[in-house]
Design goal:
This protein is mainly β and 203 residues long. It contains one helix and eleven strands; from the N terminus they run ββββββαβββββ.
């Protein structure tokens, strides 16, 4: 069952643009706040060409607007505190915050502002937006899987998504590296991003 309520039945209601709408999911439409206690924003980079190092950001905030009848009207906005990066190694975290990487004293925040949302079929969606990092803004495409809706024991209406994306960090000015004697470099240019999002509907 799709968050945006697409059905193939001939008697399914449709919006003004002709998109099929599932009336059971009309209540999904609304504004949501990302629940930071049950959300993770993570990344993985290849280290020394042979293994992945994973990390995440511990401080962030965000909002969603979901439209159950027209995916194109759905939006997302996320702000991430770069100094909250954690990889399980204090020395590495300090290096990531330094001028070699995130330059957190000069650029404390990374932001994402959506510009386009699409339903791909089933529970799969795609959101495109502007990722701003180190003063550079470039497009980012995130593929999402809708995990469903639920009312939690405290009466909150929740939605859940899993997302993934890939970037070349050099496009945002993250170019530090070190050459390996055997060839290749210490840190990959390609970075895999992953998102587990839980959001609570506004009253």
């Amino acid at each position: 069952m799709s968050i945006f309520g697409r059905q193939n039945a001939d008697d399914t209601p449709a919006n003004a643009g002709g998109t099929a709408v599932n009336p059971e999911l009309a209540a999904v439409t609304g504004d949501y706040t990302i629940d930071t206690a049950h959300t993770s924003i993570g990344f993985a980079a290849r280290h020394a060409m042979v293994t992945n190092v994973r990390g995440s950001f511990q401080e962030f905030s965000g909002t969603l607007h979901l439209d159950g009848s027209d995916p194109a009207k759905s939006t997302a906005s996320i702000d991430v505190t770069l100094a909250s990066v954690e990889t399980g190694n204090a020395d590495r975290d300090t290096h990531l915050k330094s001028a070699d990487f995130f330059k957190t004293d000069e650029f404390p925040t990374m932001t994402f502002r959506s510009t386009k949302a699409e339903a791909l079929g089933g529970d799969d969606y795609r959101i495109t937006g502007d990722l701003t990092l180190l003063g550079t803004t470039k497009p980012l495409v995130i593929d999402l899987e809708f995990n469903g809706t639920v009312q939690d024991p405290f009466g909150n209406e929740r939605v859940g998504f899993e997302g993934k994306a890939e970037i070349l960090r050099s496009e945002w000015g993250l170019t530090w590296n070190a050459a390996l004697e055997t060839g290749g470099v210490l840190v990959s240019d390609k970075i895999k991003l992953n998102f587990d999002i839980s959001a609570v509907k506004s009253a």
